[in-house]
Amino acid sequence: MAKKRGSKRSLSSTPKGLPQKKARVVEASSSSHNPFEIAKSSNARSVKHHVHNRHVPGSSAPQSKLNPHTSALARSLKRRKDVLRQELLDKKKSNAFVDKRIGESGAAKFNMTQEDKMLARIVRERSRRSKRTARFALEDDDADGGGMTLTHGGKVIDESYNPQDHVILSDDDEDKYSGNLEKVDTELHFGGGAFDRAKRNSAESAYGPSSGAGGRELGDVYRSRKMELDEMIARKKMEKAERMKRKENQVETFEEMDESFKELASILQFRDKEKEHQKHAQAKKAGMLSKEDEEMEDWDREMKEYLFERKVKATDRTKTPEEIAQEEAKRLQELETKRLARMNNDFEDDDLSDISDDDTKNKRQQKKKKKRAIKKVKSAIKGPDELDSDDEDEDENKIEARFTSEGLVYVDKKGNIVKNPEDESDQDSSEETPTESDESDAESSSSSDEEDDGSSSFQTNDKSNLSVGMKVMGNYRLEHQFEGRENWYPGTISNVKTGDDGKVLYDVSYNDGDFEADMIPSNVRPIKKEKMKKKETEEDIRKKKQLKAKVKARSSMPFVFEVPTTLEALHDMIATHASTGADASLVIQRIYAANSVRLNKNNKEKMQNFYDVLLRRFIAVGDAVHSSGDGGPDLGRYEQLNALTKILYKMAQDSPQCAGAVWGRRLGIFQKALAKRLRDSELVSVDGCDDDEGQHFSAWPSTGTILLLRALGHIFPVTDKRHPVVTPALLLLGQTIAQAPVRSHYDLVAGLFCSGLMIEYTKGAKRFPPEALAFLAGVLRLFSLNAVEAASGIHLPTLEIAAKNPIFALMRRSVVAHAETSENAQTSLTQISLDKKMLSDQSMPTALICSTLKLVEIAVSNIDRSIGGSETEVMLEIHRSLLHIAQKSKRKSMPPIILKAIKNSLLVLSAGIKRSEEH
Amino acid sequence: MSSLSASSSSAREKWKQLKILLKESNTNYENGVDFHRKEAHRFDQLRKLFTSLIANGELNFRRNGNNQEVEEEQDAKQKWNAHLQTQYNVYIDQLCDSIKHGNKYALRSMCGIIAVSCCQQHQKPQQPQEMRIRRVDVNLVHRMVDALSCVQEDNVASEMAKMAAAEFANPYVDGKYFVMKSIKRCSVEVYDLMQSKKEDVTVVADNLTTLLLLVDSIAPNQAHLDSNLSLLIPSSDSANNADDGADSTDDDDDESDDDDESDDDDDDSSTISNDTNTQSFKKQKTSHTTTKKKKQQKKKISFQSIAKFRKILQEAWLSVLRLPISSKLHKRALRHLPTNVLTQRIPSPLRFADFFSASFDIGCKNDDNDSTSGSGSTDVITSLLSLQGLFHLMTTQNLEYPKFYTSLYTLMSHSTVFHVKHRIQFCTLLTNCLMKSQMLPAYVIASFCKRLCRTCVCGGVPPSGSLFVLALVSNLLRRHGECACLVHRHVYNKSSKDKGNKKNDNDDNGMIMDVFDNETNDPAKSRALESSLWELDALEKHYHPAVSALAKTCGTEDNKTPPYDLDEFLLHTYKSLFEEERRWGGGGGGGGIENNTSKKKRKSRSVALAFHEPKTLFQEGDAFSGWLSVP
């Protein structure tokens, strides 16, 4: 069914636009020529004299002369027919043109007037545009009149249509009927019409061509339909029966199995849960639980804890830092007012809650307090002014603890520094500090007991007095104690035995869970029972509490401090209120808490200043670490540094801007100081030992400064690509490493430290510090066999100077020598400490090389982590240096442990390279 | 002079005084403030005495070659004169002795004496005294310089030299001239001494060099030379006198002869011992023989001609540089020469080329044997400075030095050149050599780029140095397109990875084995063009942000970006970078290195803070765990 658009032209028709009518008119009435259509030769175009063979424009062709009367149009039409038509025919184009315009062809052409035509056209146009027709208009309705096509499911229904296909295709959604009804239903519902007729015609029934076939056919259909339904019902029933049967079977099988289980069950053995439980409890009591059980135990406990945990109502919101600071400051203020009140014997609205806690434990202490209170009373009689005097005034040896930048110094009345501080001198001030634990309270009280009661009787105690299970006071770890300070703790004797030399030794288990074996009798003394039993009336307790509180208030440090503006002021403050390092940290902590920027914006300036003071304090403590070590548990300089670091961090968090400014200024000062030292160092002779006291001039920064730079890494993020504080600090370190000449062991240690800092700073962001790596490579080379040769491979001028220095030329030798003398050096790697004592130590060169190797390993592992290929190459020089010093020689071979370390470092290096290659 | 009898009594007094003063000098030298004060006083007294004697005319130095005959008819006056002269000589000896011990006052007295005792001896005797030309006594200056050169202590010697230069040589043109002349004479003597007796003359050589370094080598302009003001002993008005002209001209010619023949100098030195000056005698004779063609010119004494001045400058330096001088002075000389001496239009600057090339070899002598290792930083500086001198000669005097680029390349392997004080000079030299010529072969450029970057990565070069190197490399890569393969190598390699697996220099993972040979010092053999600049990648990880940024862009700029201004990079130091970073962080500072203008408005930057609260100063797992014992 080819659909043809009517716009195609037929070949026979003349081109559109040519007035056919006229042509016909011309042909019909050839007598009446259109005078305009005849090209006359007698026009302006005619020539005066006819010249043979001369073509005159406008004149007709020679043949036209034969029929001079034909019009120009006719001629051109003829030509067109002769030439163009032939051409088109040759091209084998065979389209015909049907003019379907209204009123242009057929009878209408003559019947319709112009107006009718226009009207008809506009009606057609309107009807086409109108929605109504458009809605139902099929696209190609006009093509072949009545030829309607039916579709089903988008498919044209015609001869090729196979309903079966269609059914199969679309039965998905009609699953329930299993496709049984499909065909019938279709026929029943949609049967009849052309489609059915065609079908019937094609598939003739047995009774011949269908004459009135409609009813019979339908009956057939119904019958077959009934049969089908019956069949289906039967099928379903059968299925149901089968299902029932299967179920019965299953039940039977279960029953059988249940019966057989009893037999099997008799074979099985069950564990005794109850017994196990008991066992577990026993084991628990004995403390001999297996590891697994222990874990389970922990788990259970934790679970139970969660179970019984108090259900807390959700609070409104978390407190802002400002509020926290406010609360802290308020708390301290309260404590301070209370303290001041107590000092003035004002116990109104004071519940003494903070005193009562240790009441039962330290009755004896209160006795002492009582004594002291009596003293106080006596002195109060003398004059009211005496009351305010310090406790120390009453002590015989008037040694005062001063806390200076040097650390804890004991100063007597005249201001001289007493070298060996007695424990008693600072006991009074330290024992009641609120920070100290009850243990220390007990300890100090016991020791004061000793002097109060005259402990000589205990010293000469009979051995037989002590037996197992007796409650005693033990002097804990005598040999580890600091400067003869004694630590007495209550405990029980768990074992009595006789030592090798006939002395009786005691094993004491302390009340706090500690245990000490083999104590000599002088360190163990029994506790007087009667003291323990002493009863006191309620009133007494209260009184004593008050007294104690008063004394405590007097001796303890204030809770609120003013902000010191200078380092000296801070040191004075610490000297008056603190005796230990922990106290000093506490003082600083309280200064911070009471004057935080969070409390009041006006504090900003004060705190900025204080921040700088703290930095300087940090440096001072750090330098003290260098000059005299950690300073024992009392001073705990490293602990102080830790505390300072924390406070510096907190303050920086409060006001980053201030912290940045202060740090920046401090770094600027460091830089200037470094520049000055570098200038000075040029004037100092190469040996650097121009002072008589062996004080080396060093261009390197002091230990405190370096330690401060370590703290910097905690306060500011070192991973920033560009940071206003960290980047200058890095540059400063780089300059130090590259330019400060190495002249002594201290310089080397400082150099290693600075390199370590650079590595630490850059490790997070996986950058690399060339100066630090070159320094490490150079230091390694200092240990080579030949100093001159080594110097040639050193890249930093700072170390080139060192290579010429006799101190370092002998380093390798001294490493070897040290290894020979000390066994320790052969077994373990020595570590560097910041203490000055270390520098003159025999093991210094060994420690240096060990540390360098360790640092190299750290650096490698840092750089190694970033795998980009080029970074591992950075370690090239270090690699070389390592190979260089690993050279073996018969005379001066390195000790094996160090050789091993070198080898290890090399392995780490090459492993790093390999790993980067794998990726 | 006119009243001899009247002066005889005073002469007696003076004689007595002289005797006393001179006698005291016989006491042994001992160290003490008192002693030195006394000595200073004594020398000053003596100087005053002799000054007055000379001014009186009682002591004059007109004892000439025809001395012997005159002596026959000596009268008392002349006898007194002769006596005074011997006393004078004793005094000079004492002064020299004292100078050798490093006494400044002696030097000052010496200068004073030189200033008053002008020598006139080579004037024609028949000329009236007032017409005679007065000029500085060469021998006295020589003795002073000789004494100066013998000062043993280093510091004292330099102090003395400084003083001599500042008070004697530099202010006065003639003083300067004669000091240089004496230096030359001394160094020739010392050199001979060294050659013949193998003595250690380093101290003397050092002292001479120090003095020569201190003497202002810039020749004054002609007008300055002509004016009397700049002369220690103003040549009497006759110098400008046309009548007297002939003599001065003769003298001029004389001196030129003298200078040209080194024999003459030797003669000079030989005549020091005896006071009679044969030289002057000879000059007199020669002066007669020489023609007087220059009569029409303005008459000058030798030191008043700029040409003479330049010549003696050159001679003095050349003779001093022959001596073995300490490395410190060597460096100072190397630094001094190109800027101060070679620019003085000396007659033959190429004669210094030997010195420079020899100096370079001192610095890098080890490198031929062991190329991996450089020598100490001091020697590197020596080489560097000598290269600079050579460069100067090459550019200004057309010196042929084919090894130049190799030498420069060798020098670069020592990263210390980026640390030393003269690094700016080194960098300028690099810039001049590499940037100013378009004609350098690509392999040279590539080798230089490679080695520079390698040194930056492995040698602990400061960030300032790295910045400069990166800027230079960037400029070089842009200018020499042939070297772009150094940066783009990996692209090429990845494409050829599939087939390149079998190649040895291609790793499995697309990594390139660096074929660059850093050990060799010959750019042609380094195979740098076949390598790649992986160092740039490493430098991107540099801790300094500017270095990192520059390394990132290096080699990838398009042609439109203007090349870096290397002079800007020259000036960076640790300190300047430090200040830059601090300014960047705080206050109303400008922007970073790259964007100085854009961020001016920014008031102050907020400071980022770490968010991990530290528990302790040293934490487990930081770079210090394991080797630093912290409780």
From TrEMBL, chain A:
Q: Just give the chief location class.
A: nucleus
Organism field: Ditylum brightwellii
Which segments show compositional bias classed as Basic residues?
46-55, 363-379
Q: What is this protein called?
A: Tudor domain-containing protein
| Coiled coil (UniProt feature) | 527-554
Q: Where in the cell is it found?
A: Nucleus, Nucleolus
Superkingdom classification of source: Eukaryota
GO CC annotations on file: Noc4p-Nop14p complex; small-subunit processome
Cite the entry's keywords alphabetically. Coiled coil, Nucleus, Ribosome biogenesis, rRNA processing
Region feature (Disordered): 1-79, 130-162, 272-296, 342-466
Membrane-crossing segments per the record:
none
Family per UniProt?
Belongs to the NOP14 family.
Composition-biased stretches (Polar residues) = 28-45, 60-70
Organism lineage string: Eukaryota, Sar, Stramenopiles, Ochrophyta, Bacillariophyta
Database matches in Pfam families:
Nop14 (PF04147)
Question: What is the annotated role of this protein in its UniProt record?
Answer: Involved in nucleolar processing of pre-18S ribosomal RNA. Has a role in the nuclear export of 40S pre-ribosomal subunit to the cytoplasm.
Segments of skewed composition (Acidic residues): 346-357, 386-397, 423-454
Extract one GO BP annotation from the record. maturation of SSU-rRNA
UniProtKB/TrEMBL annotation, chain B:
| Acidic residues bias locations | 244-269
Residue span(s) of domain CCAAT-binding factor: 383-551
**Bias-annotated ranges (Low complexity):** 270-281
Q: Which Pfam families match?
A: CBF
Gene Ontology biological process terms from the UniProt entry: ribosome biogenesis
This protein's GO cellular component annotations are: Noc4p-Nop14p complex; small-subunit processome
Return the annotated region ranges for Disordered.
Answer: 236-297
| Residue ranges with Basic residues bias | 282-297
User: Per the similarity annotation, which family is this?
Assistant: Belongs to the CBF/MAK21 family.
Name the record gives this protein: CCAAT-binding factor domain-containing protein
Which source organism?
Ditylum brightwellii
